[in-house]
Specification:
Strands 1, 2, 3, 4, 5, 8, 9 and 10 form an eight-stranded antiparallel sheet that branches. Strands 6-7 form a two-stranded antiparallel ribbon. The N and C termini lie far apart (about 50 Å). It is elongated. The protein is built from five helices and ten strands; from the N terminus they run αβββααββαβββββα. The protein is of the alpha+beta class. It has one domain (about 5-229). The model has no long low-confidence stretch (mean pLDDT about 85). Helix 1 (about 5-15) crosses helix 5 (about 200-229) and helix 4 runs antiparallel to helix 5 (about 200-229). The chain is about 35% helix and about 30% strand.
């Protein structure tokens, strides 16, 4: 699977999940020195904001390395032959995987700020965030093809953006939760009978989990705003 095919499959999965990706909110860059490609899309921007005065956002991104580009333009057998030669090439290759970063955020408009919540409110926020993240990133470690443990996901902590008022009191400006998880990409083989699983089903599952997490994050931020009022 090549970069453009993966991008199209991802955006279709997001659209099918009701997250309304828009090319206007999509950023794609390429590093001219390393040929790394970076993709970022803001999703859910058409969703009714239920957490005012906060504006809730959700961002998916990934980095497509030059090695992934090389691997996607040929078969596994041809690639290892080019790298190691015919006599020393390995007989097996590991599965391809792509790291998908997902960040849920919420900010107040126009650089405004509100009073920092009490500790009891934060405890409730963190408990709700933990349950939400467990659904978004259900697995953080799993066995790979060599029966070794592999890290396939990560759940971050709630990060708070704040600043001091003129009176020296900390005020809340926004908050975010970063995560990432791996999606396995299909390898191309010389043998037509040897096929890896299609990535479209895992992407559809990821998009559905992200849609659920986005809705729960919206409710969490809404409850936080009500608790501060």
């Amino acid at each position: 699977m090549r970069y453009d095919e993966f991008r199209e499959a991802l955006e279709k999965a997001l659209t099918d999940a009701g997250l309304f990706p828009s090319h206007h909110f999509r950023t794609e860059t390429i590093n001219t020195a390393t040929t790394d490609r970076y993709y970022e899309i803001i999703v859910g921007h058409d969703t009714v904001q239920r957490a005012r005065p906060f504006h809730v956002t959700a961002i998916l991104s990934h980095r497509w390395s030059p090695f992934e580009s090389a691997r996607s333009y040929t078969t596994e057998e041809d690639l290892v032959t080019e790298l190691f030669g015919r006599k020393t090439r390995p007989s097996k290759t590991t599965r391809r995987w792509q790291r998908m970063d997902a960040v849920l955020g919420a900010r107040l408009p126009d650089e405004s700020a509100i009073s920092m919540p009490e500790a009891e409110v934060w405890r409730s926020v963190l408990a709700s965030a933990d349950m939400m993240l467990a659904k978004l990133v259900p697995k953080e470690v799993e066995d790979d093809e060599m029966l070794r443990l592999a890290v396939t996901g990560w759940r971050g902590e709630v990060e708070v953006e704040s600043r001091c008022s003129a009176d020296g009191v900390p005020c809340l400006c926004g908050l975010r939760v970063p995560t990432w998880q791996a999606v396995h990409l299909p390898r191309a083989w010389d043998d037509p009978n040897r096929q890896d699983k299609d990535v479209r089903d895992p992407l559809a599952q990821l998009a559905c989990r992200f849609q659920v997490a986005f809705a729960e994050w919206m409710d969490l931020v809404r409850d936080l705003g009500h608790a501060i009022e």
